[in-house]
Fold each of these.
Amino acid sequence: MTRAIITVVGKDTVGIIAKVCTYLADSQINILDISQTIVQDYFNMMMIVDMSRCNTAFDQVSDDLYAIGSTMGVQVKCQLEDIFDKMHRI
């Protein structure tokens, strides 16, 4: 299984979850776990996803999600789980 961590942070607006999840579904990326909160109008979401059925290169998925976030004024980052784990052990 190829797992990735997707984070979304920014000012809350209508459709953030819908746009990100629609892209994931269209790309055959399965959401394994999701957590989202809104704190004083700021949106924060973290997802763990399974990319093993996705036919799109990881770098392209990451760029696409970044672009989706840019259109909504939020920051979307996508990292492979093993890199995410190593970064947070330092």
Amino acid sequence: MNVIKTDIEGVVIIEPRVFSDARGYFFESYNKEVFDREVARVDFVQDNESCSTRGVMRGLHFQRPPYAQAKLVRCVRGAVVDVAVDLRKGSPTYGRHVAVELTEENHRQFFIPRGFAHGFAVLSDVAVFQYKCDNYYHPEADGGISIVDPSLGIDWRMAIGEAILSDKDRRHPRLEEFDSPFEF
């Protein structure tokens, strides 16, 4: 796999080696030994999958400590723009983000460490999105910041006014109104 470092330490894009022929393709989507050595030592304990239609925006979500989650995400059908926002107090990159397009064609994966908010916008008619998490989901630890906060400067590659958001995601505070539970 090819590990691409981003402008925020610890947030990486992973490109697997894809073997294609007339029958289709094959690639190794996860190998703990290689991941621990090349990306981070993480023990994933839960896999999730969502299906969304064009224009859906999900996020920007996180789990508060002690239930914080690192995530390894990928889009197995369709295309999304995926974003991680640094929420670690004292971090030199606090409030900054990394965005990457994940598609069924590029097979890219995105690793988001603990202390980051995560979200995505669906660019295709349908997107099936998978998450590996290193901690179990706890509803009482659920948190988020506004996915449409203009101060974040995220290019969602769609008209924000036409985005489809859950009621919960509409109520998240903007970054300036947010008191982060994460330390750098």
